[in-house]
Structure formats: C-alpha cells, structure tokens
Write a structure and sequence with these properties.
alpha/beta; 19% strand; 5 strands; Hypothetical Protein Ychn, Chain: A; 119 residues
Length: 119
C-alpha cells in the first residue's frame, strides 16, 4: 500500500455529506496509521469548505470547518485553489492554516501523491 493520500474535495459544504466524508476519510487514514502522509485539496465548489464563519447549525449539518481543523491539528496540509474560491465568492476570509495555491501547484500535488481519491 502507498504511504500517502491526497483527497480531492469538489463538493460544496452543505447539501450533501460528500465533502465531510472526504475530510473524515483523510483524517481516518492519517490517525489510524494507514498512511503517514494525508492531504486535502479543495477545488471547484469544494473551495467553499474553507470559508470561515460558516454556521452549519443553521442547516443541521456537521461542521466542515471543524473537520478541516482536525486535519490541520494533525499536521495534514489542506490546500485550496484560490482562483476557484475567488471566482465563486470573491475576497473572503478562510480558515487559518489552509494554504491558497494556484492550478500549477495543484497539478504538482496530483503528480506527487500516489493515492488520490475524489469526493
């Protein structure tokens, strides 16, 4: 088995639980020791998961910000394609610790990681 995992999140934070499930998969693989190196890449609508100040209790959904923070607390890198985010919501505050990157860097991540999964 590979010793690294990149989880790509393409889904918005609310309306389905796909984004939350992807973050928890990455965290579970990391915490269990299945992979020593797990990262998350937010692209497309998935970039909305990094927006600070979300209120998931208003829609009765789990907090994706807490899921991202759990990953960051475990020293797992969380990357967000900045152009995708800005195109959707303009200039907004994001969760501290999320690394804003461009598409060239995102493509480099795809080449670096041996296991890649998409939600």
């Amino acid at each position: 088995m590979s010793d690294d995992l990149l989880t790509i999140i393409t889904k918005q934070p609310y309306g389905s639980e796909d984004a939350f499930a992807g973050m928890r998969l990455a965290l579970g693989c990391l915490v269990s020791g299945l992979v020593p190196d797990a990262a998350v890449l937010l692209i497309g609508d998935g970039t909305l998961n990094a927006v600070a100040g979300q209120r998931p209790e208003a829609v009765g959904m789990p907090s994706n910000l807490e899921a991202l923070q759990d990953l960051l607390d475990m020293d797992a890198p969380v990357y967000c394609v900045e152009d995708d985010l800005r195109r959707r919501v303009g200039n907004v505050t994001t969760l501290e610790g999320v690394a804003m990157i461009g598409w060239d860097e995102a493509r480099a991540l795809l080449s670096r990681y041996h296991m890649v999964t998409t939600f």
